[in-house]
Amino acid sequence: MNETKIMLSEKEIPKQWYNIMADMPNLPKPPLHPGTKQPIGPADLSAIFPMSLIEQEVSTQRWIDIPEEVLDIYTLWRPAPLYRARRLEAALKTPARIYYKYEGVSPAGSHKPNTSIPQAYYNKKAGIKRIATETGAGQWGSSMALAGSLFGLDVTVYMVRVSYDQKPYRRIAMETWGATVHASPSTVTNSGRKMLEVSPDCAGSLGMAISEAVEDAATHDDTNYALGSVLNHVMLHQTVIGLETKKQLEMVGEYPDIVIGCCGGGSNFAGISFPFVCDKIHGKQVRAIAVEPISCPTLTKGEFRYDFGDTAGLTPLIMMYTLGHDFMPPGIHAGGLRYHGDSALVSQLCHDGLIEAKSYGQTSVFEAALTFSKSEGIIPAPESSHAIRAAIDEALLCKEEGKEKCILFNLSGHGYLDLTAYADYMSGKLVDYEYPEEKIKESLAKLPTL
User: Fold this and answer.
1) At residue 333, does pLDDT exceed 80?
2) Where are the domains of the chain?
3) Is pLDDT above 90 for 82?
4) What average pLDDT does the structure give for the chain?
5) CB neighbours of 16 closer than 8 A, spacing ≥ 6?
6) 121 or 340: which leads in pLDDT
7) What digits encode the pLDDT tens for the residues 6-58?
8) Rounded to whole angstroms, how far apart are CA atoms 102 and 109?
9) 297 partner at 20 to 30 Å CA-CA among 15, 312, 329, 431?
C-alpha cells in the first residue's frame, strides 16, 4: 500500500523556531513611530506588547527556543500530518508529486494557534489579564480565544463586520472559548465610532479592526494587543510548520521544487516557506509562491512603501507592499486575505526576488477547492484554496511539459465553517472582482510622505 500520511511523533516537534532574519540578504527597514516618523524602540511598543515578544520582533538570532509550556500545548495537534495527494494527482493526470501540510487538525481548525499559544503564554508571564485583538474570517479570533481559555486570559475580539455577518459560527466558537466579540467598526472605541459616522453601513476591514483593538489595548492598563499575522514574531512562530514538513519530506526522500501558501498578512505562507527560503538563500533551487486574491492584490499590484498597518494610523509605519491603509476590500469569502498590507519580511523577500506572488479570482479558487475536496476528501478553507489553485496550475503545467516536479502547499485550515461560501459558489452567486487600478492609485496617493 502506498503511504498517504507522513507522521512524526510528538518527540519530533521542533524545539526551536527558525528566524529568517538571520539569513536574509537585506533586512526590512525599521518600523517608524506614527507621530514622529522616527524609528521606534522597545519603549514605544511596550504599551501593548510584552518585552519577550518585542525582543523576538527585532531579533536576528537564527534559532529561538520554544518554551516547554508552549510545546506541551502544541502536542494537542502537533506534529501536523503531511499528506501525499495521490488522488489529486490521479484526477489531474499529472506526473507531479503533490504534498500538502494539513494545519486544519488544530482545535481552532487552522494554523493560527501556532502563534496564539505563545503570544498568550508570554503575555500571561508578563502579568497581563486581557488581550484585545481583531479578526477577519474569524480563524485568528478563534485561535486567540482558545489560547486565552488555556492560559486564563480574557479576550476581546473586533471582527470585521462582513465576516461577522457571513460567518456566525466562528463568532460562536470564540464565545464558546470565553471571548467577547464585537462587529467592527463598533461603537466600543473612538476609532470605531468615527468610522461609523462617516459610513454607517461600513462592511469593515482588517485595518479598521486593528485600529479598534490597538486603541482598546492602549487605553487599558491590564490589556495588551495580539496580532495574528504580519509581525516578525508571528512569522517566527509559524515556522514550526515548515520545520516539521522538512523532516517529513526527508523521511520519504523528497525535497520540493515548489512551495506554495496563500497570503493575506503572510503568516501561513511564511510558516511553510521560510525554512525552504533559507535553503534558497544558501543556493538551493526552490521556488516559493505567495498566492492572493485579485480583489486584494497587495504583492502583485501594491507598492513597496512605508504605510500604517491600520486604517486610523495608530500603528507604526511599516515598509511593506501596500494598497494603502484606507483601502476598502470587497467582501470576498476569503476574509483572512482581505488586508491592505503584508508582512515586512514577506514584502522584503518579494522585493528581493526570493519569493514570487500570484493572484486569482474567487471563482477559479472555489473550482480548485471542489476538485481538491472531491479527490482528497477535505473541504478546504477559502483562504487555503488559493494555494490549492496555484498547486493545481503548477501540476497541470508539469503535465503539459512532461516534468516530474515535487509540489508542496500549506492547507492552512478546513472549510467546515465556510459552507455558506461553497453554497454561494455552487449556486452561481460568487463573482470575480478585480480591484480597479484607479482605486488603488487613489488609496496609494494618501500614503504618508516621509
Assistant:
1) no
2) 79-109+238-444, 113-227
3) yes
4) 93
5) 63, 64, 65, 66
6) 121
7) 999 999 999 999 999 999 999 999 999 988 899 998 888 888 999 999 999 99
8) 10
9) 312
CB under 8 Å to 119, separation ≥6 — which residues? 53, 131, 144, 147, 226, 233, 237
Q: What is the mean pLDDT of residues 255-273?
A: 96
Contact 12, 430 (CB under 8 A): no
Per DSSP, 103 falls in state: G
Q: Where are the alpha helices (DSSP H) in 46-184?
A: 51-58, 68-74, 86-92, 113-125, 139-151, 161-166, 168-176
Positive or negative, the Cα torsion across 117, 414, 389, 302?
negative
Helix (H) or strand (E) holding 269: helix 267-281
* pLDDT exceeds 80 at position 334: no
Q: Kindly give the residue spans of alpha helices, DSSP state H, lying in 352-436.
A: 362-376, 382-401, 419-426
Residue 424, C-alpha cell as written in the block: 454561494
Its sign, for the CA torsion 265, 346, 103, 17, is: negative
pLDDT > 70 fraction of the chain, expressed in percent and rounded: 98
User: 287-293 and 258-262: which strand pairing?
Assistant: parallel
| Stretch (H or E) spanning 258 | strand 258-262
Residues 332 and 380: beta-carbon distance below 8 Å: no
Which stretch of 53-67, 195-209, 406-420 has the lowest confidence by average pLDDT? Answer: 195-209
pLDDT value for 309 = 81
User: In angstroms, rounded to a whole number, what is the distance separating the alpha carbons of residues 278 and 261?
Assistant: 16
Contact, 324 vs 446, CB < 8 A? Answer: yes
Cell representation of residue 354: 526570493
Do 113-227 and 79-109+238-444 have the same topology in CATH?
A: yes
User: Domain 113-227's class?
Assistant: alpha beta
- 38 Cα distance to chain centroid: 28
Give the DSSP H or E segment for 101.
strand 97-102
* Three cell numbers written together for 286: 526552490
- With bands split at pLDDT 50, 70 and 90, how would you rate the model's confidence at 263? very high
- pTM of structure: 0.95
Which residues have C-beta within 8 Å of that of residue 278, sequence separation ≥ 6?
18, 20, 23
**Alpha helices in 222-266, H assignment, sequence order:** 232-238, 240-251
pLDDT at 117 over 70: yes
Q: Rounded to 5 degrees, what angle do the CA atoms 339, 386, 156 make?
A: 40
